[in-house]
């Protein structure tokens, strides 16, 4: 992959290195095809995504609830997001950020991975736009203030639009699920989980009315702390945003 990346750079190719894979067991052209189904919606995003997202049901005639598809997070009343560009740490790399020691954004990821007494690991994070191991402390991607190329930077992954072929499908015991229709290389990014950001109160009210099966708690630290013995449950904490999907 290193030689391929160097070739793409020297030839000035607009293609990104994650468009390639050399693992013989990855059959990227093979595509899953459902023999028959009762419901077949051609594109659940109705043109919002770069790639159509079909929705199928081979079990019964149930259709998914009507939704307004969104590719962006949407904060509701009471949810405050820090979107100040001055808050961002930006790099001045011009080598697709392949040298992690010189990229300020990479260094934030590496420094964060040492929290909690962890052993420093300079190789943490993406490897040619794929993630071989989870980074529980988070990844700091390059941003709008960086000088690196948006399409080919090795530290820009989740910010790009959807490229993989996905399919929403009905399962017998678990409701609606989503799957990839093609083989994908190990560590490839699939898609984001976007939707409305709710306060805790708003999420509780919505859960009572519509169910909370697809709510995602964003403040994982508080979730873990809340179940520990001796947790200060009487301490008033600010309302933290929750995410409910619109996908």
From TrEMBL:
Please verify whether the record's keywords include 4Fe-4S: no
Give GO terms: molecular function aspect only: histone H3K9 methyltransferase activity; zinc ion binding
Localisation? Nucleus
Q: Cross-referenced Pfam families, in alphabetical order?
A: Pre-SET
Q: Where is the Pre-SET domain?
A: 89-161
Q: What is its main location?
A: nucleus
Source organism's superkingdom?
Answer: Eukaryota
Q: From its record, what is one biological process in GO terms?
A: methylation
Family matches, as SMART domains: PreSET
SUPFAM superfamilies linked:
SET domain
Cellular compartments per GO CC: nucleus
InterPro entries, per database record:
Pre-SET_dom (IPR007728), SET_dom_sf (IPR046341), SETDB_methyltransferase (IPR051516)
Q: Which UniProt keywords apply?
A: Methyltransferase, Nucleus, S-adenosyl-L-methionine, Transferase
Fetch the PANTHER family from UniProt. Answer: HISTONE-LYSINE N-METHYLTRANSFERASE EGGLESS (PTHR46024:SF1)
Name assigned to this protein: Histone-lysine N-methyltransferase eggless
